[in-house]
Amino acid sequence: PINHPDFAQSYNNIGIVYYNIGEYSKALSFHEKALGIQETTLPKNHPSLAISYNNTGKVYKNMGEYSKALSFYEKVLGIQGKTLPASHPDLAESYNNLGSLYHNMEEYSKALSYFQRALDIRNVSLPPNHPHLKTTKEWIEIVKQKL
């Protein structure tokens, strides 16, 4: 049926392609179609829903619509906070996304807080030479210089 979660996955995949080529309005359209299906067919804390919220948040962030992006990123964090262990790398990625968003919004103290949370998780969940550790540390230094 047209409202099957597999259709949502396909819509998400198409949205990702449009995002990657910079066609944000088209990406948003497909992510919204995916969410329309998922929000009616999946439990509120389903991981696929978190992925779709994250994809939509990324599009809004790149469109400069930060308040909308924030709303979606907070939904992701809400789901992951309930469904993932506190040291899960996906949770660190969500904190990192929020840090980056707050950096773009020039709310540097909030950005620093989220980047630090991401780093704390990554320090325990990733090997010491993982590139995400380096990137998060670099972001922390950038934000500290702006405070």
From TrEMBL:
Query: One GO CC annotation, please?
Result: microtubule
Keyword DNA-binding, does the record have it? no
The signal peptide, as residue positions, is none
Q: Which UniProt keywords apply?
A: Cytoplasm, Cytoskeleton, Microtubule, Motor protein, Repeat, TPR repeat
Broad class of the protein's primary localization = cytoplasm
- SUPFAM superfamilies per the record? TPR-like
What are the start and end residues of each TPR repeat?
8-41, 50-83, 92-125
- Gene3D superfamilies for the chain: Tetratricopeptide repeat domain (1.25.40.10)
Q: Where in the cell is it found?
A: Cytoplasm, Cytoskeleton
Q: Which PROSITE patterns match?
A: TPR, TPR_REGION
Q: How does it assemble?
A: Oligomeric complex composed of two heavy chains and two light chains.
Q: What does this protein do?
A: Kinesin is a microtubule-associated force-producing protein that play a role in organelle transport.
Q: Which family does it belong to?
A: Belongs to the kinesin light chain family.
By what name is this protein known? Kinesin light chain
Q: Which organism is it from?
A: Adineta steineri
Q: What is the lineage of its organism?
A: Eukaryota, Metazoa, Spiralia, Gnathifera, Rotifera
